[in-house]
Design goal:
By secondary structure, this protein is α+β, with helices and mostly antiparallel strands. It has one domain: Fructose-1,6-Bisphosphatase, Chain A, domain 1 (2-Layer Sandwich), CATH 3.30.540.30. It is built from three helices and two strands, in the order H-H-E-E-H. Helix 1 packs antiparallel against helix 2.
Length: 67
């Protein structure tokens, strides 16, 4: 995933970014999870612009078990 991020950031390749997202989806139960990029098109009525987002999540295994 990170290698594809780097490729995408260096070249501007949307295909590399899509490949990074495919790798992210395949990692089913990470303890630490991250994502970067133009991930969501939320408020654009034309559905052509997206927000740049970056986030990090850390799982609390004890809390997850309760759910």
């Amino acid at each position: 995933m990170i290698e594809k991020y780097i490729e995408s950031f260096h070249t501007g390749s949307m295909d590399a970014h899509r490949d990074s997202q495919r790798a992210w989806i395949k990692d089913e139960a990470p303890v630490i999870e991250t994502n970067l990029g133009y991930v969501e098109r939320l408020l654009d009525p034309e559905n052509v612009r997206a927000y740049w987002q970056g986030w990090v999540c850390i799982s609390d295994k004890a809390q997850t078990e309760k759910f």
